[in-house]
Every structure is written in C-alpha cells, then in structure tokens.
C-alpha cells in the first residue's frame, strides 16, 4: 500500500500551485473545474508518483488555526529533496523569496536532516533529505 495523494483546500489555487511547482519541481496536471459548484483543482505529481491535490471552492471557510502553533490533526507534509545540500539551498531560496522559515536546516533527534517552512497558504512543509 501507499498514500496516493494528500489534498489541500486553498483560497488561491494558482498561487499555491506556483509555490509547489517552483520550489519542489512538481508537475501540474490540467485544471479540473466543476461549473455547478465552482469547484476547481489541480493534481501535482512528484517524481516518485506521490501526488498533491490543490482544491478551491468559494464556499469553503478559511482555516482559523495559527500556522506557527502545533495542534492536533495533520500538521505538515514532508518533501524529500535528495540531499542535505538541497535542503539548505531550497530553504535559503524560500527565505530570499520572503517565505516564513519555521525551523532552520538541522539534524533532528530521530536522525532526519530537515527544515520547516510555511507555504503560500501557511501550511507547514518539512523539507528533508
């Protein structure tokens, strides 16, 4: 078994798509649109077959959680970028583009080398080897 995809609601579909395609080299499929309920989405594909679905529908309310505080439930996605050097490089690129760095590149107690950033919607993304 494997996780097929994870989905994220967003108020700005194009902005979030640009974030993941620019920094993590995802390939965006064609935009799906359902005119009857104003739903639209993209599937973004990673090179290992994992996918991220980005969805927008005006009737979905904003997330009221503070992205800088941990809480119960799904709290982050982790994206493997292949090397420590890539973790540092992507983190620095995000910093220079004024994204929030939640944690600097470091080796964690369980042996991961990672950083954590907020995407354009404030979702936590761990960047790991």
TrEMBL record:
<dbReference type="InterPro" id="IPR051332">
    <property type="entry name" value="Fosfomycin_Res_Enzymes"/>
</dbReference>
<feature type="domain" description="VOC">
    <location>
        <begin position="2"/>
        <end position="129"/>
    </location>
</feature>
<dbReference type="InterPro" id="IPR029068">
    <property type="entry name" value="Glyas_Bleomycin-R_OHBP_Dase"/>
</dbReference>
<dbReference type="InterPro" id="IPR037523">
    <property type="entry name" value="VOC_core"/>
</dbReference>
<protein>
    <recommendedName>
        <fullName>VOC domain-containing protein</fullName>
    </recommendedName>
</protein>
<dbReference type="InterPro" id="IPR004360">
    <property type="entry name" value="Glyas_Fos-R_dOase_dom"/>
</dbReference>
<dbReference type="Pfam" id="PF00903">
    <property type="entry name" value="Glyoxalase"/>
</dbReference>
């Amino acid at each position: 078994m494997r996780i097929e995809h994870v989905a994220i609601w967003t108020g700005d579909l194009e902005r979030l798509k640009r974030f993941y395609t620019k920094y993590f080299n995802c390939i965006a499929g064609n935009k799906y649109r359902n005119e009857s309920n104003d739903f639209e989405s993209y599937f973004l594909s990673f090179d290992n077959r994992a996918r991220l679905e980005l969805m927008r529908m005006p009737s979905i309310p904003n997330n009221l959680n503070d992205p800088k505080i941990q809480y119960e439930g799904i709290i982050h996605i982790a994206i493997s970028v292949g090397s420590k050097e890539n973790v540092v490089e992507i983190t620095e690129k995000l910093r220079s583009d004024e994204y929030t760095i939640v944690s600097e590149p470091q080796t964690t107690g369980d042996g991961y080398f990672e950083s954590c950033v907020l995407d354009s919607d404030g979702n936590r993304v761990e960047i790991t080897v």
